Amino acid sequence: MVTQSVYSTAPTHNSSTVDAGMHLLVRENKQTPIQLSSKTDFEHESTDLIANVLYEKLPSLYRFISSSGANGINARWERKQVKQWYIEGQRNGEELIIGGLVKNDPQAIQAGFKMFDWGFAHQANDGSFFLTGDRFHSTSFFVEAVAHALLVIQQSPHSKQYAYQVAKYKPLVHRAARWMILPNIWEKGIKQNSHYTHRRYLVATALGLTGKLTNDQELINYARNSIQDGLSLQRSDGVNPEKGGYDSSYQMVGVLYAQRWVTYFPEDSLTPKVKMMIEKSLLWEQTRILPSGKIINEGNTRTAGQEIARSGKVKSIDQRSVIRAFAYWASVTGNQKWEKTARQIAKFYYKIP
């Protein structure tokens, strides 16, 4: 396990808010534990802002798919415009499938399956996508996407309609997840992930959801180890460090994956600690949101103009992940203060009423 480092407190536009929030959170949780909804993941994904803002324009999510199913940079790789493809580029199939289920859009669902088909067409016999760039990390994105989508299909009103696809992809994603925990692969992958807290929750959810889907307890055990590692890294102010500092975008990417853990493993002994981590993370994130709803990127270690995405563009705030994290947690806990924050951000970025 990676040793937790000591970092200085992150400056925010309202540092007293996060301090007050931390004291309130501790006081509230000494009295009453955070209650969880009995809703399914499909129902959480169907909550108002996720369904009617994030899933409102599904066609825009598959406009870069080639006729073969390659998406984004992978379509460019097929055209020999770039030298490297990444299996993670096919993970958008998750959002298309789940969004299509929520919005009853068969075309979006089929586009998602097409993305998955392209990905698995490039899978080796050992379960790996051996020619992909950034093998472990890129694979973890794709494994999480497929396992999550299949679980949501099973919870949806369309489960029988897409039972064939679930049966088709289940052994393939299982094989990919099993490749991730091969000793030499796991050791190298975890070492490469050491500076990124959000990757602990990504890996945990990829393996945990696949374990849930395929009844593989060993995968779940590896997922729990990754969860514990992530929990050990959170700072007292709620920051989950990225490259030794804070990042108001990647903070919520990690929280999203952790939220899925809570939904699928509500009785796990680690889940109460995960819930507290999420609450502290969201309280800190609120200090990075202006009254207008704009998310501050000043001081971010990764999305303040210093990193380049696979697409070749400069990384910026992923407002969709931030909105989703607050809206999803509002659905999970029934606490409408999180819904209020999600709507505040959505009003700024999507101009909703």
The number of distinct β-strands equals 0
3D shape = globular
Strand content: under 5%
The mean pLDDT is 92
Our count of domains comes out at 2
User: What structural class do helix, strand and pairing data support?
Assistant: mainly alpha
Element pattern in H and E: HHHHHHHHHHHHHHH
Low-confidence stretches: 1-13, 26-31
Radius of gyration: 19 Å
- In the CATH hierarchy, the architecture of the largest domain is Alpha/alpha barrel
Mind explaining what this structure looks like?
With 353 residues, the chain is mainly α. The protein has 2 domains: 23-38 and 234-353, no CATH class; 55-229, Alpha/alpha barrel (Glycosyltransferase). Helices cover 59% and strands 0% of the residues. It contains 15 helices and no strands. The protein has helices spanning 15-31, 41-45, 48-54, 73-78, 92-103, 106-121, 135-155, 163-180, 183-192, 197-214, 217-233, 250-264, 271-286, 319-333, 336-350. The chain is globular and about 50 Å long. It starts with 14 loop residues before the first helix and ends with a helix. 49% of the residues are buried. The model is unreliable at 1-13 and 26-31 (pLDDT under 50).
Layout of helices and strands:
Elements: H1 15-31, H2 41-45, H3 48-54, H4 73-78, H5 92-103, H6 106-121, H7 135-155, H8 163-180, H9 183-192, H10 197-214, H11 217-233, H12 250-264, H13 271-286, H14 319-333, H15 336-350
Helix pairs in contact: 1-13, 3-14, 5-6, 5-7, 7-8, 7-10, 8-10, 10-11, 10-12, 12-13, 12-14, 14-15
Structure at a glance:
The chain has 15 helices and no strands. With 353 residues, the chain is mainly alpha-helical. The model is unreliable at 1-13 and 26-31 (pLDDT under 50).
